[in-house]
Amino acid sequence: MSKEKKKDGFRGKNYFKEAQEEKAKTLREIEKTILSDYKKGRDIDNTEVFNQPDQEAVVEIIHKMLRIIFPGYYRDRRFRGYNMESNITVLIEDVMYSLEKQITTVLNYQKEGENPGGHICQPSLENKASDITLKFLSQIPKIREYLDTDLEATLQGDPAALNKDEIVLSYPGIYTIAVYRMAHELFLLNVPLIPRMMTEHAHNKTGIDIHPGASIGKYFFIDHGTGIVVGSTTIIGEHVKIYQGVTVGALSTSGGQKLRGIKRHPTIEDYVTLYSGASILGGNTIIGAHSVVGSNAFITSSIPEGTKVSIKNQELVYKTKKSGEETLKTKDLKPDSEWIKLK
Known about the structure:
Elements: H1 3-37, H2 55-69, H3 84-106, H4 122-137, H5 140-157, H6 164-170, H7 172-188, H8 194-206, E1 209-210, E2 215-216, E3 221-223, E4 229-230, E5 235-236, E6 241-243, E7 247-249, E8 267-268, E9 273-274, E10 279-281, E11 286-287, E12 292-293, E13 298-299, E14 308-309, E15 315-320, E16 324-329
Parallel strand pairs: 1-4, 2-5, 3-6, 4-7, 5-8, 6-9, 7-10, 8-11, 9-12, 10-13, 12-14
Antiparallel strand pairs: 15-16
Helix pairs in contact: 2-3, 2-8, 3-4, 5-7, 7-8
C-alpha cells in the first residue's frame, strides 16, 4: 500500500472519530436542554408518578373481568383441563389483588383545586381501597344480569346475528357495553381515573365512546357502533337501540370546568331508536318513550312520547353524457313506514 493511501486511511479514521465525538457532544447539549425544560413549573413538568395507575394493569383487569363475566368465551384455552369453579376463584382473587392495588394508588389522586398538597396515610388508603374493591366484586352478578339482557337485545335487534356466540365473540357493541358496565360500577363507588381508563380502552378498541358516568338501563343494543358518543350525564332507559355515528352529547361546553356536575346531556326514555348519524344534544332534551329518530337528525329540544323524526329528502342531481344534466327529486318516504326499516 502506498504512503498516500495509508495517509488517506488515517485521515478517514480521525474524521470518523471526530464526527462521533461531535455527535455525542451535541446529544449531551440536547439532553441538558430537555432536562432544564422540566424545571419551568408547568403542569406538564410534573414528574410525581406515585399517584398514577398502571394502564397495562387496568387493561389486564378488564380481560380478567371478561373471563369472569363470560366464563365460557374468554377462558384460557391453553389448558385442556377446565374446572370452572377453581378457575373463577383464582380470577376473582387476582382481580381483587390487582384492582385493590390500583385503587389504592388513585385514591390519593386529587381533582384540580381539591385539597392541594394533601395526602391520606397509606394504611387508610389501603383499607378504603379494599372496601371499595369488595363492593365492586359484589356487583358482578348485577353486571352479568344487565349484560344478559343486552345480549338478548342484540340478538333480537340484529337479523344478521347468527347466534349469541357470534355476538359475544365478535360484536364491538357488546364488548364496549360490557366494559362500560364494569366501569360504571366503579364510577358509582367514586373511584377516580380507573373507570375512564377502562371505557377509553374500549373506545380505542371499538370506536365507541361511552362515558362511565352515563346511566344506561337493561336491553341496550348498539349496532355497528363506530363513532357513537354517549356523554357523562346521559340517562338512557331500557330497550334502547343506537346505531353508528350517533352523538348523545352536550349542547355547549364553552363553560368548561364551571359545568362540572351539571346535567349537560340528554335523557333517552324506554324503547327509543336512534338511527345512524343522529345528534341529540342538551341536558334539558328528553326523547320520549317509543320514539324513533331518523338518520342525521339534529335535535336540541325535547320530543314527546311516540314521535318519529325524519329529515326531508334532499334533491338529487344526475349527470349523464347523453342527456346532459337532469334534476330529480327523491321520493318522499313516509316517516312511519319505509324509512324506519332502513339501517
